[in-house]
Design the sequence.
């Protein structure tokens, strides 16, 4: 009698149990496959008639490490974070979370009043409040400060 293996031997908990395999950073650590993916933080976008709110979950960074700019109603969020804590260890066995570099873009409504955007970073969540005007407003480039 032959048994059919439904998953790889090293990930099988019980014989015949199917566990879908995804290549991740643990595979790169243990030599299975190089980690070539880029993580994306979770985002909430809420919109009403007079405002838009964008919430981005980015834990472990400082508010000074954010760069927010708006060019032609496209909001770009950049994070450049240097984590020196990991350098004190000789060998890292598993390192699943860290935000070293992150970039994302959001298309804002044409009537977004980009001069009055408020950005706050509290408890690992970047919260952007984008007010809307009655008529479309044009601005070439605006930088947003995170508080």
Sequence:
């Amino acid at each position: 009698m032959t048994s059919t293996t439904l998953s790889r031997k090293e990930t099988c908990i019980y014989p015949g149990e199917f566990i879908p395999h995804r290549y991740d950073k643990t595979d790169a650590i243990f030599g299975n496959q190089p980690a070539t993916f880029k993580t994306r933080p979770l985002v909430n976008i809420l919109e009403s008639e007079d405002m838009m709110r964008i919430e981005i979950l980015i834990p472990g960074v400082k508010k000074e490490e954010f760069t927010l700019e708006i060019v032609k109603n496209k909001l770009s969020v950049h994070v450049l974070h240097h984590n020196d804590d990991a350098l004190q260890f000789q060998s890292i066995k598993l390192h699943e979370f860290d935000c070293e570099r992150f970039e994302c873009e959001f298309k804002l409504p044409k009537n977004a009043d980009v001069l009055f955007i408020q950005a706050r970073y509290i408890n690992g969540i970047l919260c952007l409040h984008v007010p809307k005007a009655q008529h479309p407003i044009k601005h070439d480039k605006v930088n947003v400060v995170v508080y």
